[in-house]
Amino acid sequence: MKDPTNERKVEHINIINKDQNVDRKKFYFDNLSLVHRALPEIDYTAIDTSVELFNKRLSFPLLISSMTGGDHELVRTINRNLAIAAQETQVALGVGSQRVAFTHPGARSSFELRKYAPNALLFANLGAVQLNYGFTIEHCRKAVDMLQADALIFHLNPLQEAVQPEGDTNFANLTVKIAAIAEQLEVPVILKEVGAGISAKDVSLLIDKGVHYIDVAGSGGTSWSRIEHYRHSEGKNEEIGITFQDWGLPTPMAIKALQKYRDQMTVIASGGLRNGIDMVKAIILGARLCGLASPFLQPAMESQDQVIERIIRLKREFQTAMFLLGVAKFDDLHFNPDLLIEP
Ligand SMILES: Cc1cc2nc3c(=O)[nH]c(=O)nc-3n(C[C@H](O)[C@H](O)[C@H](O)COP(=O)(O)O)c2cc1C
Questions:
Q1: What's the number of domains the chain is made of?
Q2: Which residue of 22, 37, 150, 192 is 20 to 30 Å from 207, comparing CA positions?
Q3: Is 140 helix (H, G, I), strand (E, B) or coil?
Q4: Which residue segment(s) compose the domain that 270 sits in?
Q5: What is the pLDDT of residue 9?
Q6: How far away, in angstroms, is 36 Cα from ligand 1 center?
Q7: In the structure, what pLDDT confidence band is assigned to residue 90 with cuts at 50, 70 and 90?
Q8: Do residues 300 and 56 touch, judged by C-beta distance below 8 A?
């Protein structure tokens, strides 16, 4: 019998490829204006876009966000292309949920990426809700070891689970379990949504509980509610997945809401970021790293060179935006409200 967890990943990719509106294209960052400098007073070629995170230096603050893994040639190719490109360009890479590796051992090799990316910043990934369905610290350790990861991402996806007919919807008492793992695990834990955002209230539950990294993964880009709609309703249009397709905290608002936790949390921005200007805006609002997922799917299905090309384009956009703001290094961009014009 085919393992449903293994088949699901390819189904997701097929849906994303078929329906352009799975990317909600809200472009929320376009509502923020920046202070253009006609006299930047800096040399473009001397701009330092690099940033340090988890003791590794990235060429600029890009994370190829968690997408896939499984026992399929397609997903093995995607992950290999992403890993080689991440190594070559010195950016961070997260893999998709590794739960499948525990039910389907053939999926393991799709996550064994350290051989392609010996120095890159790599993040393992599991759904936090699985802690209510039998997963323990040992599963977390195995996920980290598989990838020789620098950190473990726990994704939170209550919306995605709620719109499925038989989703894992028991999210009761998860905070305590996440905190227990964060305290015991040998690498840091990052908490992440999948496109509906993490609120300040959520973060307040985790202060002083060993979690210091939050990827807001807000709304505006990939909609998991819409993807699940296609998986369960065979194209009918008035299903719950469509009703909730734009549910969630828009990414720029979610980052802003976490500014008060500046001293306790490192924030990662993702969800609907589509170019280097969005990235610069996210950093100005307080993020230290910017994640993009779906924009990398097509290039990764093609070749490592296409992924590298996409990354180089993002870096050029990022550096150009820094130049036009008159900012020569990351620290002068990070949390700098003077660069923004409030509407
Ligand atoms: C094909 C695909 C698969 C994904 N699978 C996962 C996953 O397994 N685990 C996870 O934490 N997020 C997953 N995500 C969510 C992304 O990491 C990201 O949070 C979300 O797509 C928003 O970013 P985007 O608008 O740039 O796509 C996936 C996204 C895509 C496009």
A1: 1
A2: 150
A3: helix
A4: 4-341
A5: 87
A6: 32
A7: very high
A8: no
